[in-house]
Amino acid sequence: MLDHDAMDAQQEFDVVEITSPDGTNTRRIGLVGVLSNDPDLYSQFKAPGAFGGATIGDPWEALTKYKELLEGSEYNCDCILPLQHLYVPQDHKTCEEFDFPVILSGHDHHRVDEVVRGTRLLKPGLDGIYATVLEMIWEDASHEDRKPKIKARFVKTEDWEADSDLEEINVRAYDALAPLRDTELARVPPQFEPLSSVNARGRVCSMGRFICSLLKSSLNTQEGKREHKVDTVLLMGGNIRGGKDYDEGSYFSLEALEAEIKSDEAVAIVQMPGWLLAEGIQATHAGEPIPGWIQYDDGVKEEYFDDGRPPVVTHVNGLHIEHDITYRVATKISDLTNGQSQPWTECKSTHCMN
Question: What pTM did the predictor assign?
Answer without folding.
Answer: 0.64
